[in-house]
Amino acid sequence: MSQKSQELLAFVRQLPEGFAYAPIYAKDCALQSGKISKGKTPLERSHHVVMTPGDVALQIERKPFVFQAVGVFTGPRSKGLVILDVDKNLAKLLKKWGNSLDGAPVVKSTKPNAAKYLFLVPDYWWTHVKGFGLSDTGAGYEVLWGRQGLLYGAYPGSTDGKGLEGEYGFLGDLDSIPEAPGWLIAEMKEAAGKELADAGFIKNRKALDFSDRDPGEVAEIIQSALKVIPGQGAGSRDHWVKVGMAIHSELPTDLGLTLWSAWSSEDPEFANEWKGSNPCEEVWKSFKKGPVTLGSMFWMADQQMPGRLWLPEDLRKVVMQLEADADPDRMPGFTDLIAATKKALELENPAEQKYELHKIAYKAKMRDAFELEKMYVDQIQYESQAETMTVAELFDKDFKRTYLIPDLLPNPSVVLIYGAGGDGKSMAAWTLAKHVATGNPFVIRGQHVPVEQGPVLLLNGDQPLGQMQEQLQEVEMPADAPVTLRTDWTLQSYARFTKLMHRVQPKLVVIDSLIGCSGGRAFDENKSDFATPLYWLTRNNGVLFPAATILIIHHANKTGGFRGTSAIRDAVDETWSLRRPTDKEMELPKVGNNTRIITVEKSRSGRSGTSLLMRQEADLNFTLEDWTPEINPTETAPSGITDRVLQRLRVMYPAGKTREELNSDALCGGSVAAIRKSLQRLEKRGLIWVSGTRKTEKGGRVVNVYQAVVAKDLEPSSRGEVVEECPVSQTTSGSNGSAMGHSPTSEPGCPTSGSVVDSTGTLPTKSEPCPIADPLPCNQYGQVDTCETYPHAREKRSADEIAALVEDARSFWS
Q: Looking at the structure, do residues 407 and 539 belong to the same domain, yes or no?
């Protein structure tokens, strides 16, 4: 690095902050545009970015042979800095205004009788003054306002040859720049007034019609912007053209051309192009409506004078109104933004909804519509959240959990089932939907349990209607079942979902599938934001819309594992995994090539580890049943007491037992507290219920009697059947037996004689009499003994134990 470059760096590093500096290209260096520098051209990006002394020093250090001087931009960008550039007659000027120049920093020129003086214009004059060139007054000096002027470093020499190449020197302190003298401000004000007069501007603003946007008013706004937008000299054709296009976009008349021409002619580096003709005229004729508008010009002016201070106060209000007129949906505040988002989300047409959301997000300067939706979800959540409360207040609230299917489908809840493609996820979901829609019983722990019948809502995002029709026909969904379908669904349709839930009032909602209903965001499934709609469903289930069980179908990854971000698991209440059975599991009863195993991997209601078995029967129908034994023989922990209590009450059915009786029952085991908690859990899961009360022999206290919940407790009409009550016997189900367990058939001679429950538990209205099969082994209460089906359901009882159980039942029913 040369000595001159080192001196330049030392000067730059002591410059004060707050001014817009620029490294200056050395003479004969190539500019980014490909043209050659004449020695006064600043670095291109300094026109748009305020460069600090550190920024300038970095460029000089990197390219000491390219940048050999430093300049500063004048005007509002640099605190109102103005440079009085005396090109000749310095002695005459000093004689006239010498006292007013004292104390101002001075840039020493290589020309005799020349110098530059630096002043500051008070901010209240910024919009009322203008710089001017040497030829404007003939006084031998020019005023740089908005343009760039050299401070220190290499000087390339003047174009007329009177100023030789050399070095600019600097005297004074940039931290102590005096205010511009009155005579200088007066000349700058006159230059600004003369420009308005020459352009033929309307001076009486009261005559302007603001509502009609008078062209004179628009011209005045443009002129205010042009006053602060400087020319950029050599290599700045793009900048020059953009200014012209911005003017043409709103004022494509001769007045617009006059404004552009007047502004263009002020750049001294293009003086030669004005000899004999106006270089703007031909280019003006080629302009067409395009992306460059007055907004582009306003941005350029804001770079010079932020905050629209380049506009007078009354015109500033006009521009604000112009912008509002150009953008009628502009969101001035948070409340309006939320209201507009809600309105867009209520649109039925998904394409129109996306368009409106993206438009709102763009106007609100958000990254995308997804960020807008997330904000809206946060707002809904905030509005619905409760205030702080004590534990006692929490316990006083009624949050009783119910089950559509006891111990299987909690309500409200959000359940996600995933598996490999083609393994039957949709069939499992449709089969569960059929149970809920028809109210057909379901097998839980080897026993039919009632199903809460109600409407079902199926939302599909990635299947055609024809395929859905085939799948629902395969599970024999009745045509008159209370099922509502909606295709082309997106999970982000929060408002539409809420409206649909209030209209249908479904017990069960099936969403097929998570990826298919995620719209264009499926590629983001590994990002936590992808789970936002699931969090919304979970948090607002039963709050913003009627409580329901929401079952979401999801795809497994290539290896059969869970696909996507772990936030998906975290967002839902339960996660079910559907898979094909292993070779070892194929040896178990009821398991074969036609079966799939569904395992509850995660459950907030304590059901993790339980399983379901889905099977395609010989009649090609699909059935589901719980595949968890009544008692797990490997469970030795205290939690196994719950299974033994349930099994004991089922064996006693239709009799019931009190908690005290279960405490003393040796087959239940466990502590008093364990029995109490087991009863609480089983009642919450819908597997038992309080059937009545009884007085104790000692003390005469009234205590609850607990009874197992089985399908027999259902009234026939609640199953979707219109039949009379009949004695029921257990028979084998034949080769097309139900996967629900052993199907009950009516005794011959009953009103429903000949009716038989099919593989899904539906009673046909008419059928041929059933062949009578050999009866299955029953217990003392007439129930099918499930010991063979579930070998570990209970231990063998002695004759004394059986006699005691019979006596208990007789005493209860007597």
A: yes
